[in-house]
Amino acid sequence: MSAMNPSFSRRAKPLTLNDSVWLRHTLVIISLLTIVLFLILPLATVLIEAFAKGWSTYAASLAEPDALAAMRLTLLVAAITVPLTTVFGVSAAWAIARFEFWGKNLLITLIDLPFSVSPVIAGLIYVLIFGAQGWIGPWLSDHDIKVIFAVPGIVLATLFVTFPFVARELIPLMQEIGHEEEEAALSLGANGWQTFFKITVPNIKWGLLYGVLLCNARAMGEFGAVSVVSGHIRGLTNTLPLHVETSYNEYDFVGAFASASLLAGLAVVTLVVKTFLEWKQKQDLKAARQAAAE
Amino acid sequence: MPQSHIMPGFRPALGFTLFYLALIVLIPLSAMLLKTLQLSLEQFCAILTHKRVLASFSVSFGATLIAASVAAVLGSIIAWCLVRYPFPGKKLFDALIDLPFALPTAVAGIVLATIYEPKGWIGKVVMDSIGVQIAYKPLGIVVALIFIGLPFVVRTIEPVLQEFDSAMEEAAASLGANRWQAFVKVILPNILPAAITGFALAFARGIGEYGSVIFIAGNMPYVSEIVPLLIITKLEQYDYAGATAIGLIMLLLSFVLLLMINGLQWWMRRRNGQL
Q1: What residues of chain B, 108 to 167, have a C-beta less than 8 Å from chain A?
Q2: Of the given ranges (A140-149, A242-251, B162-171), which has the lowest mean pLDDT?
Q3: Whole-number Å distance between alpha carbons of B133 and A266
Q4: Is A121 in a helix, a strand, or coil?
Q5: Contact with chain B for residue A128, Cβ under 8 A
Q6: If you measure CA to CA, which chain A residue comes closest to B165?
Q7: Most CB atoms closer than 10 Å: which of A14, A56, A130, B65?
Q8: What count of other Cβ atoms lies within 10 Å of the Cβ of residue A152?
Q9: Chain A residues touching residue B87 (CB < 8 angstroms)
Q10: Is the ipTM of this complex over 0.85?
């Protein structure tokens, strides 16, 4: 579904405003109540619980070696997976939005597939291949290579769950933009890479950043898939979300919520930047439409 | 077949896409199928008809069905208010809708458990007033899945409502329909495909959800144990065959849901005249 809707401010809504005050207020109150109970209260709770024993306890639990190791691992996993998912997304979008070929719709469906697969299954499949009883598990252990219960497994599981993020943003966007400008550049003698970096990238930059942003949020926040392959070794294979779980299960609530507050902060920053990028992209498309009309 | 001979990079782009798709998604998923094929049909059926497995499927299905339905209703109301009514702070609330997409599920899990447990802010109020315990009961699963499902519904209905031409409502009104008739005959048929799609998306996400559920569920076998948790439990007991057989059913279910959702989105676009 494209996020590109024409602005709706131009439409007057006389009828809606004729809805009885009683009805309007009831519906708005139901909406606000739901938003407060399900969205605002949870966000506030993270902070309240994180600072329940004061600032110094909060800071101390974040400075714990295990917490620091978890942060480092989370950053490392994101640093590996986000670029790979981005390169894949761009190349998939280039192939799908710029060319016609047999089986294109099937390919789009398959790219979306990881979205609808349970994260637990995303972890399970790699255990079946690389685990001790897996396909190549024995060979790996003969050669002293650890994938499951180690960083490579965490990276693989994260690659799976973030798989569609960039591609599904770029495909509709590049289809909407069209290929006239690129063809013009090519016919004027630019080579493929020049065209890509000078024409395509500037055109899709907001959508690309949007996909990268959401991909990063998921990569840093993934829990289920990573939980299956990680082994939960404190200080070694615990990512930040897993560290939240470990601390919580050990009744270290301040520790759990302190780490959780970092992830919640990431979520809020993601939402703010996302809103900004959506606005930017809408502006760009509007400008492009106007230019095309003139 | 390339549509334009001048556009370069078809082979490398498609080649890399297919290679990466096979490496990360298709080969690992087929590992699950092959692992299941090692089981005889009787073993496969024995795993799936085990009482604990059946119980977890009914917990997962029941909770997800209820949660997705509640999310569909609440989400429709929220989308309606966000598009149609002016109220203070609307932009902020609109941006907040996506929080469950952005908030890591483990964080959602511990937070919801903290709020809805018997001593928590809301859990206590509900416990004291109507004597119902939310967290560590199946109801807790429903709460977590409503949280997860809500943005799917809102974000599916919102654009349809924005595109929806209120001229049709005006026409209905000028032909003498009252507001309720206009809603049932004009608005509802137009947003129904989106509401059903949102419901299906919320269901598909909810049935496989793990992180936000396990902290609030209580995880009692036969009572509040969801299917994804049972898969993990079996893996931890090195029962790879059991985990894989259940996983395969879940995977097939995702396939079916994905195809259904694609169909629904196609129906939605057609209804809205984009096809």
Answers
A1: 108-112, 114-115, 121-122, 146-147, 150, 156, 159, 162-163, 166
A2: B162-171
A3: 32
A4: helix
A5: yes
A6: A11
A7: A130
A8: 16
A9: 28, 32
A10: yes
Cβ-contact A215, A166 below 8 angstroms: yes
Q: Are B271 and B164 in contact (CB under 8 A)?
A: no
DSSP state of A38: I
Q: Which pTM does this prediction carry? A: 0.91
With CA atoms as reference, report the closest residue to B169 among B82, B91, B89, B83.
B83
Residue B13 and residue A94 in contact, taking contact as beta carbons nearer than 8 Å = yes
Give the distance from residue A140's alpha carbon to the nearest chain B alpha carbon, in angstroms.
Answer: 16
Quickly count: other Cβ atoms within 10 Å of residue B108's Cβ: 30
Q: What tokens appear for B273 in the block?
A: 């005249």
Minimal CA separation from A236 to chain B, in Å: 19
Taking all residues of chain B, what is their mean pLDDT, rounded to a whole number? 90
Helix axes B51-84 and B41-48, enclosed angle (nearest 10): 60
Number of residues in chain A: 294
Most A-contacting residue of B10, B24, B254, B274 (CB-CB within 10 A), to test interface:
B24
Q: How confident is residue A255, by pLDDT bands cut at 50, 70 and 90?
A: very high
* Length of chain B counted residue by residue: 275
pLDDT at A16: 56
Return the residue matching tokens 């782009």.
B13
What amino acid is encoded at A148 in this protein?
I
Distance from CA of A291 to the nearest CA of B (A): 23
**Two tokens, residue B223:** 């009572």
One-letter identity of residue A196: F
Q: What is the mean pLDDT of residues A34-46?
A: 93
Q: Give CA–CA dist B77/B64, Å, rounded.
A: 20
- The reply to whether B19 touches chain A by the CB within 8 Å rule is no
Helices (H), B164-187: 166-174, 179-182
> Which of B28, B108, B228 lies nearest to residue A129, judging by beta carbons?
B28
- Band (A285; pLDDT cuts 50, 70, 90): confident
Residue A39 and residue B100: Cβ atoms within 8 Å? yes
Residues B54-103: pLDDT tens digits? 999 999 999 999 999 999 999 999 999 999 888 888 889 999 999 999 99
pLDDT digits (tens, 9 = 90+) for B204-262: 999 999 999 999 998 999 999 999 999 999 998 989 999 999 999 999 998 899 889 88
Provide the token pair at B90: 């609307």
Residue B114 burial (C-beta neighbours within 10 Å; 0-12, 13-18, 19+): buried
DSSP string over A124-177: HHHHHHHSTTSSSHHHHHHTT---TTSHHHHHHHHHHHHTTHHHHHHHHHHHHH
**pLDDT at residue A69, rounded to an integer:** 95
Q: Minimal CA–CA distance to B105: which of A78, A264, A210? A: A264
Pick from A226, A223, A216, A227: which is nearest to A266 by CA?
A216
3-class SS of residue A85: helix
Amino acid of residue A44: A
pLDDT tens digit sequence for A205-219? 999 999 999 999 999
B7 pLDDT band (50/70/90 cuts)? confident
